[in-house]
Amino acid sequence: LQELRQIRPGLRAIIFTGFNDEDDIVESMKLGATDYLSKGRASVLLARVQNALAEDTDREVKTLLENLENHQLEFKSSARWDLRQSKLNHELEQVIVKTVAGFLNSEYEGVLLIGVDDQRNPIGLMHDYRTVRPQNRDGFQTFLTNLILEACGKDLNSFIRVDFPVVAGYEICRVSIRPAPRPVFVAVGNLQHFYLRTGNATN
């Protein structure tokens, strides 16, 4: 474990062993083990792994929220609900598409966080959830995935990952985007637009 943590300091390790030695448990925890399980407790291993991964996700997102928007990071309050006018606004959907397309055309991986205000405070997705069917995370994920792939190309499905971390009690949406293997154009009316992420903006 000590050697592994030298290679990857942030590694979260669960010790799974056939022995249940108290001194070994103490030493493992000192070295930074997340958990320690004997093989007789294999039934709880999956739950412990899921908890460790969830904690990793929470920590990653909190770190992102400490940063300002940049060439790899963008925040949006919502995907389609206009918080100022308190109504559905389809123009906001195109802003999401533009942002994702810009990241796809970039040479760097990018992250779009939806449900975060301009001050980087998580505000959640409940307003957006009410505009989709079913009115929950699954409905929103289906809407968002379809929106992006129909605009950018269904062949790019594997370059976009959507998950829903919880921060400060609010469920937000994280869209992780890898650079596309081809130029991505988005249709706006009769024109094809090429968007590119430059600094903290998409142009």
Structure notes:
Helices cover 35% and strands 23% of the residues. With 203 residues, it is α+β, with helices and mostly antiparallel strands. Strand 8 (166-167) and strand 9 form a beta hairpin. It is elongated. The mean pLDDT is 86.
State the gist of this model.
By secondary structure, the chain is an alpha+beta fold.
How is the secondary structure organized here?
Layout: H1 2-7, E1 14-17, H2 22-30, E2 35-38, H3 45-65, E3 73-76, E4 81-82, E5 87-88, H4 90-104, E6 110-114, H5 126-129, H6 137-152, E7 160-163, E8 166-167, E9 170-171, E10 173-177, E11 185-188, E12 191-194, E13 197-198, E14 201-202
Parallel strand pairs: 1-2, 3-6
Antiparallel strand pairs: 4-5, 6-10, 7-10, 8-9, 11-12, 13-14
Characterize the largest beta sheet: strand count, sense, and whether it forms a barrel. Answer: 4 strands, mixed
Q: How many E strands?
A: 14
Low-pLDDT runs of 5+ residues are none
How many helices does DSSP assign?
6
The first-to-last residue Cα distance is: 46 Å
Regarding quaternary structure, what we see is single chain
Structural class category: alpha+beta
Rounded to an integer in angstroms, the radius of gyration calculated over CA atoms is 20 Å
Query: In percent terms, what proportion of residues is strand?
Result: 15-25%
H/E order of the elements? HEHEHEEEHEHHEEEEEEEE
Average pLDDT level: 86
Shape: elongated
Walk across the major sheet and give the strand order.
Answer: 3-6-10-7
